[in-house]
Amino acid sequence: MAHPHPLYGGTMDNKVAQTLARSFLALGYVTVRMNFRGVGKSAGVHDHGHGETDDMALLLAHMRTQYPDLPVTLGGFSFGTFVQAQLQQRLIAEGTPAERLALVGTAAGKWPMPPVPADTILIHGELDDTIPLTAVLDWARPQELPVIVIPGADHFFHRKLQHIKTLIVQMWHR
Known about the structure:
The chain is of the alpha/beta class. It is built from five helices and four strands; from the N terminus they run ααβαββαβα.
């Protein structure tokens, strides 16, 4: 699970990132979160998504050695969606794609979001003023990706977090 932008206070303890992790725990997955470079006690400095994607790939490689027979899924919030979408593209090129993605507050319009698989779960807040819903729809439209909109939700899903978990759990095996 990947967290929001580190230069704006994003950490692995972000409540949306934690909600994503809890969603996958409820589905029976082993979940892991890490702080991106330069966050908390991690070394390094922010690298605009490039180094963060490399770091996430290293974490994934480590997890695959610990749990070689388990499926891999990727989830992210805000800037973390950019990192996970880039990682999925890398994994596809290597022939080892993640089983599925769940992206919340997708960073379309903020960073150059790559395309994602058709079964990706996209959840966005209707009132998100950090990443406008129109930017997400403009990115999703050519891919014909459905976007689940949480009415009244802002970027951080204040008082709406339960919808994220409910939707992911309900939709995951469809």
